[in-house]
Amino acid sequence: xxxxxxxxxxxxxxxxxxxxxxxxxxxxxxxxxxxxxxxxxxxxxxxxxxxxxxxxxxxxxxxxxxxxxxxxxxxxxxxxxxxxxxxxxxxxxxxxxxxxxxxxxxxxxxxxxxxxxxxxxxxxxxxxxxxxxxxxxxxxxxxxxxxxxxxxxxxxxxxxxxxxxxxx
Length: 168
What we know:
Elements: H1 3-14, E1 27-31, E2 34-37, H2 45-51, E3 55-60, E4 73-78, H3 88-103, E5 108-111, H4 118-131, H5 135-145, H6 153-164
Parallel strand pairs: 2-5, 3-4, 3-5
Antiparallel strand pairs: 1-2
């Protein structure tokens, strides 16, 4: 683990409030190389390029297409944002995509329609697994960076189940 990652890990565990909270934007940096955002973020090539985004993971009910020509890999997981949608079936594919991209030095934007529930749930799950922290710790960390983040109650319940099962 790099020094930077260790510092972020300590901040996550201790709930360090010295790290700035970004105001609501179409995308917010959660970790170096990991952003959380809404559907507007992928429509803005300047924001993607200036943030160094190399990979986009879209979590939507229907396909979304990037309208511009940028060298960004794009993967989609089709999932509804309802309390009875089974999120856990999608987590392995999402974790694999994020881990593979970041492991190869890429920068990932995870987004859904509003950057609030589906994408926040996946980013929270990534933090839980990567740093071996609780749902509450990961959610608190994400909320400090993207205040509008708020998984729906069904996703919250499932992420707590995922935590109890050991992130599988």
